[in-house]
Write a structure and sequence with these properties.
homodimer, Farnesyl Diphosphate Synthase, 2 domains, 11 helices, prenyltransferase activity (chains A, B), metal ion binding (chains A, B)
């Protein structure tokens, strides 16, 4: 819900002004700007209500549920998505933005929310601090990987394959990983992030960690 | 924070398009639309993080804190503010909206959030269900009172007194309490709501309930 809210708001005319999302008209194109604005707000609020209500209904101890709320709140706000979007906006049209600034943007805008989802899931299931931090590092690399592959696909895939407007970053003069590292360099970096994410899983039981390993590999090799 | 977020988003060009708020340029006028959109999102997320973190730091039992998160999440989203704003938007420019529809709008857009704040405060301090529901009814009448007085002042006060654009509802062809009940009728209704709010407080210790009584009276008699 938090991710969907950020996409709906991100597509609005005053932000990225994108008419296409997941192969369909974006929210404000289909339902108008006021509805898109309110839908994003409603999804944000609903996300927190859902965690609190869902945890209570499932008998999750309240202190764990509360940690999930904190984690998600921080990731959705100034400690994550919003911070990344502000930095992204400020760097817009400035391809001279360096690798450090680009990493800041994606670590906050994307990876932080993936971390929060993973850590919340772990904490709710009773993970200790050390385990939760290992899950966080895995999710951090996974989140950056997601973005590097996104940047590569923005160059190499079609709008039809992506379900959103391709080639948009280059047209907007945005700094991207292929822009800063070259296409081969970006692909090599994706491989490096995949290896780092997988390495964090080595400490867990192999069979139970298998789905997380598959998720990371899927993220690295997806074509859309 | 939830209230501020809703005001920031409400003032944006695609919503009420209001350039003045609390006597100063509204957020998007001062900082631009993208920042206003993100500031509202960040405040929404921060609100939930704040409740979770603040309660944990203050030693509030986690199950009470979680109930506050649920209450606020529901009030900020489709169970409250957002539902009211959608209904408000649909009624815009249609002064034939009846009293029932107007009550729906304000019960959700305004009163529901006042209720959530009051009930959260009560629950966090250990109120039982019956007490919390009495606090909710008090806050419900208080929230409607706030709106009726707002509508009256929109007609009778100046922009300078209000710190926001006066006469805006009439100009927008919005249904308001003075429109539906007349100015005297709206004032009489405000008096009725004040009496109902105060009546809910009769069940509480008089000295401890005094601030809530004063708050209701202030809300009824304020000039700005």
């Amino acid at each position: 819900m938090i991710h969907a809210a950020s996409l709906i708001h991100d597509d609005m005319p005053c932000m990225d002004d994108d008419a296409l999302r997941r192969g369909r008209p974006s929210n404000h194109v289909a339902f108008g700007e006021p509805t898109a604005l309110l839908a994003g707000d409603a999804l944000l609020a609903l996300a927190f209500e859902h965690v609190a209500r869902g945890c209570a209904a499932a008998g999750v101890p309240a202190d764990r549920a509360l940690r999930a709320v904190m984690e998600l709140g921080r990731a959705a706000g100034t400690g994550g998505v919003t911070a990344g979007q502000v930095a992204d906006m400020e760097g817009e049209g400035d391809p001279s933005v360096g690798l450090a600034a680009l990493e800041y943007i994606h670590a906050h805008k994307t990876a932080r929310l993936v971390e929060a989802a993973a850590v919340s899931g772990a904490v709710v299931r009773g993970a200790g601090d050390a385990e939760a931090e290992r899950v966080r590092r895995y999710a951090h690399f996974l989140g950056l990987l997601l973005q590097v592959v996104d940047d590569v696909l923005d160059v190499t895939a079609t709008s039809e394959q992506l379900g959103k407007t391709a080639g948009k970053d280059a047209a907007a003069g945005k700094a991207t990983y292929p822009w800063l590292l070259g296409l081969d360099g970006a692909r090599a970096y994706a491989g490096e992030l995949l290896a780092k994410a997988e390495a964090e899983l080595d400490g867990f039981d192999a069979a139970r960690a298998a789905p997380l390993r598959q998720l990371a590999r899927f993220m690295a090799h997806r074509q859309h």
